Amino acid sequence: MKLLKVSLSGVRGVVGQALTPELVLDFACAFGTMLPAGPIMVGRDTRKSGPMIQEAVISSLLSTGHEVIDLGLCPTPIIQFLTKKYKVRGAISITAGHNPAEWNALNFINSSGTYLNEFQGADLLDIYHLNRFRYKSARKFPKIIHEINPAEVYFSWLRNKIKIKEIGQAKFKVVVDPCNGAGSKLIDRFMSELGVELIAINNEGNGYFPHDPEPRPRNAGEVASLVKATGAQVGFLLNSDVSRVSLITETGETLSEEYTLPLIASYYLGFQPGPVVTNLSTSMMVEEVAKKFGRQVIRTRVGQSSIIQTMLQEGAAIGGEGSGGLALKNFQPAFDGWVIMGLVLEMMAISQKKLSELVRELPRYHIVKDKIVCPPHRLHSLVAETRKLYPEKEINSTDGLRITEKDFWIHIRASATEPIIRIIAESPSKNRAQLEVDRVLTFLSRLMS
Amino acid sequence: MRKALPLKVSVSGVRGIVGESLTPQIAARFAAAFGTYLGPGMIMIGQDPRPSGVMLKKAVISSLLATGCQPVEVGILPIPTILFLTKEKQMAGAVVITASHNPLEWNGLKFIGPEGLYLKASQVEEFLDIFHQGEFTFVPAERIKPILQEKNAGELHLQKILSQLNLKAIRRRKFRVVADCANGAGATLMPQFLKELGCQVLLLNTEITGSFAHQSEPVAENLSTLCEKVRHFKADLGLAQDADADRLALVDEKGRAPGEDFTLALTVDQVLRKKKGPVAVNLSASMVIDDIARKYRVPIFRTKIGESNVVEKMLEVRAIIGGEGNGGVIWPAVHPSRDSFVATGLVLEHMAESGKTLSQLIQSFPRYFMLKDKLPCPSELAFQAVTELRRRYSKETTSTVDGLKIIWPDSWIHLRPSNTEPIIRLIAESRSAARTRKILVSFKKELLEIMKKLS
């Protein structure tokens, strides 16, 4: 089975199997054909396949008549920021975020600096399927521009959005693991601007991932032991394009990535009006936090695109997912790991509390996440089949199947980025959540065998 | 009659109109086939100055990376320089993004094998099989290599040529030279090369802007400005490179263009003067080369048309000099490929060592008159017609290596169905213009009769 997934967040696949130069050329040509004449930005994370994909992307954008602003190695949130700031037509970020090293993806960004909305996504696919691209004739050809210094422009903006004086005064020591991804080296600059002492590991930016670049406790062992050994106040684990962060407390406790959103919400809602947006798979912790501030929680489909579009429509204060990615009003409409790190430090500085203390103020639930590999063409029908497990229950079918009961909720959905079905359940009791997930897993594997 | 398609795949690579027939996708497919064919290794990537070059180069690099090869970018460089460097730097192969003298709307890819030689016909067949089957060997992400970049790689090529020349003699003469680089890749190295040879230089069309100041084919019609500048500058020599810098045309000190055949004649003469050895040229090169070979009592070999055919023969018989009548000089002492820098060096060395002017040197050769013509004819009929002619003239001295060449004591005619167009090419040469024309007209008439009978 060749692994390839096409969704609003982009085209994602295993390099050399599904993600070939020609596929990349076709999608980038479709993007170049869809957008009106004008410059397009291109950047990538540190994956070894990055230059292979970037060369193809630039070739296609030039061939469809677009000037290309080559940002080189650049985290997605910084690409999104620059796209809007420089009023370019759009951007392509080459990164597979949290996926393992053999994966890569094209992430399409529109002129507002957000992931494509569903109409733009449908347009792009139509052009791709039609396979008729608007090529430029060869007499004159657009140029490639290298002059922008992405980090300079981005950090001089972010510096003014967070309380760096207070953070500096707190004299924090932090441990960060950028997983040799796009956040490598830039993290040095960011922390020194904040006046924070940095202990960084896997900070070479060479694309060699010592563990999967997914911010979650399983991958946080190294950071946790360093936090304890060095007496740091917090540890941050990043994905390969700095759109997700998971946290490690000063005691060395590796927090589930589910904590990132409710933790920041518990601080940010204190001074920012507006509802909260999250997806159907995210922990109910955020509901408890929102309730405290008298805010509504709007649940959407999974994916940055759905969260951001809903946030913009509803004027939400904060929006994010249980995967550790989130966006804040007054910053930019993008999942941004720099903003997350900045706000966690700001929250600790202002409250003068330890991270473990701040976390203890959040309600505790047990969330169980599992997945099962499944042929891409059967993803959705198999999800629909699981309805049979809950015949009497009321369901939410916005994105797969979600059942909410008194003592648990469960969400069964087809992944948009990989050929898998995800099963997430949450309950005050760990056993209850695990039981529900196991029930669905057994049911699905029996259907497939 | 078959309409000429805008995408041409031939022994020398692929050419097309950018955005119509030559898209990034097509370039990537060819490069993926090439990478699959060669297997993982370093592959040099060069280009001519066409504006679409960067776009196509990036598609090519993407595919080479995906097939596990390591691209080595050398930027805009002459074709002979890239061929030389491919061997010298022990590359697995090279790809050059160029469409030589085609109009600006065109571009193309040339594929070069590990010895710095164009792929042989049999290798092209294997490579195209992979292309047509569309089964490419893509490597997993962890085996993708980084792109390398080399600046000023051309330096090595110039140093090699300089090391083979009598520099002292050339530099002492302080030649005045006008060089027209046709806004091509030759402009990257010609100024430096002439400076190293101690020349006082007037340069024309050296801006590498990606638009050509004139038709870059170095034939007499395109050289009028150069001729004028040579007179004005009171130069000893005028030089005209083609866009790829593999061919060279000359202008003498009186501002006259003697024709590209003399570039080959002068360089063959200069090499044989100092060392005896076999010569190989194609069937259409002037018989003045036969005269020169006879003068030095060395064997001469005639080959099929096409650079790779000449090179293959030269390597086989260990020829020490050779080339094509179109100004493409091949000197294996540097590298077995057509090279306008080699030609420049040898012509200047000839002038320096003999103490003669270019016009004096040219006058020392017997004078011949060559004429070319073509006859439209569908390709199948063309082969039948030429076969019939072979039968009719089987009693004469002939060569059937490529079409039919009939050789008389002081004249010849070569008739050949074209590989790329539905035409028959005719080339004749004799000691007088009138006689050459007579030969050409009579054979054209005979061909038309045969075609009528056959169809």
Explain what this protein looks like in three dimensions:
- The complex is a heterodimer of chains A (449) and B (455).
- With 449 residues, chain A is α/β, with parallel strands linked by helices.
- In chain A, 35% of the residues lie in helices and 21% in strands.
- Chain A folds into 3 domains: 4-149, Alpha-D-Glucose-1,6-Bisphosphate, subunit A, domain 3 (Alpha-D-Glucose-1,6-Bisphosphate, Chain A, domain 3), CATH 3.40.120.10; 159-360, Alpha-D-Glucose-1,6-Bisphosphate, subunit A, domain 3 (Alpha-D-Glucose-1,6-Bisphosphate, Chain A, domain 3, 3-Layer(aba) Sandwich); 366-448, Alpha-D-phosphohexomutase, C-terminal domain (TATA-Binding Protein).
- Chain A is globular.
- The relative contact order of chain A is 0.11.
- In chain B, 38% of the residues lie in helices and 23% in strands.
- Chain B has helices at 24-38, 53-66, 79-88, 121-133, 155-163, 167-173, 190-196, 224-232, 261-274, 288-296, 307-317, 340-354, 358-363, 379-392, 433-454, and strands at residues 7-10, 13-17, 42-47, 70-76, 93-97, 106-112, 148-149, 176-180, 200-204, 237-241, 248-251, 279-282, 300-303, 321-324, 328-331, 335-338, 369-376, 397-399, 404-408, 411-417, 423-430.
- A 7-stranded mixed beta sheet of chain B has the order 1-2-6-5-3-4-7, sandwiched between helices.
- In chain B, 52% of the residues are buried.
- Classes of the chains: A alpha/beta (449), B alpha/beta (455).
- The interface between A and B is large, with 37 and 40 residues.
The overall number of domains of chain A is 3
Rg of chain B, please? 22 Å
Largest interface: A-B, 37 and 40 residues
The CATH homologous superfamily of the largest domain in chain A: Alpha-D-Glucose-1,6-Bisphosphate, subunit A, domain 3
Largest sheet of chain A: 7 strands, mixed
- Strand percentage of chain A: 15-25%
Query: Fraction of residues of chain B in helices?
Result: 25-40%
- Which structural class matches the secondary elements of chain B? alpha/beta
Could you give the distance between the termini of chain A?
16 Å
Name of the CATH first level of the largest domain in chain A? Alpha Beta
Q: What proportion of the residues of chain B form beta strands (DSSP E)? A: 15-25%
- CATH class of the largest domain in chain B equals Alpha Beta
How many individual β-strands of chain B? 21
DSSP strand count of chain A: 20
- The name CATH uses for the topology of the largest domain in chain A is Alpha-D-Glucose-1,6-Bisphosphate, Chain A, domain 3
User: What is the global morphology of chain B?
Assistant: globular
- Unreliable spans of chain B are none
Query: Unreliable segments of chain A (pLDDT under 50, ≥5 consecutive)?
Result: none
Profile the largest sheet of chain B.
Answer: 7 strands, mixed
Any idea what the radius of gyration of chain A is?
21 Å
